[in-house]
């Protein structure tokens, strides 16, 4: 194996072949300014995949030229992967399908050399491509996991960092403490995201290396990435394909992330005709939960092929904490040779109170056998759905800086005028204590 070493300065040092267990080969080197060509023998016993080629070149200091010592380190992964143990996996899936149907994927495994391995296992999954693109997620490759580059397992320690020129900035520690148990903004609204991520049970291919996988696909419109991993006792591989999921008529509701009680909003319903025929569609809308409609039902919609129309849906959010739902029923779709039923769609919107959370602190000294309740004036206009609380209990007063006691029973907090009751840990002791409760009201 040939290795070219190009150091920033001429100097002497070492070239090594290293593994996580230590050096497997090394040689002293003298690198001129133009670089050095080095021949490294490869031992057949190096049957591992954590090998690295490393070089260390040092230029000594020279007081006559006011030159300080300089150190250069080179690192290169040495791949020894066995391509004969790689499985080629081909996936045959439809280029386009409709939602709420099973996705059938045909799997075909092959090898470049030799006979087909016995008992090839395959694990297949289908995931929304939009979600995978957020992090540039790559399809997992088991061959790369076993035979690919591993982490460099050696640590280099020397004192050259104390004498070489320092051109970098000083590092600064960044740390923080525990966060507050109660969020100052109150409870976040409920949000729903429709994500498709289906994974089938592993299957075993037949003697010809073929098999079929079925994945259920729900109410989804978009692109799916079908991913599959194959393995035997000695061989590994992967494959992927793309599938577009689209209904003949797509209905999408554009809405805010959440609403506050009393808000009035105009939602936007986009209806797109993806068929090659004009369609006359009937759209029925309904609201439930913490939402109510403020308009009459829309008139029938006439859509030419490939045309999209926009409907406005005014709604009002009711008081409370939770979610509301908009339902749309689309009927009238006409396709030759098909009997199609009504299409039902649902969208959820989180609803929260229209005012921010309030934090109230209370404290009292408790004698043995006494209990404590939140003062009723602090619970005025409390929304039971958003009520939360914590306690901090000490054996000593705050002035004595006592540590928190770990043995506690409970505080029972009841909201006057309601059936809402919360039990908060920590209150009753066989000594004088300080109890502090903190809770939200809206």
Automatic annotation (TrEMBL):
GO terms for molecular function: endopeptidase inhibitor activity. It holds the Pfam family A2M. Keywords: Lipoprotein. Residues 196-285 form the Alpha-2-macroglobulin domain. Residues 1-134 form the Alpha-2-macroglobulin bait region domain. It comes from the Bacteria. This is Lipoprotein. It comes from Salmonella enterica I.
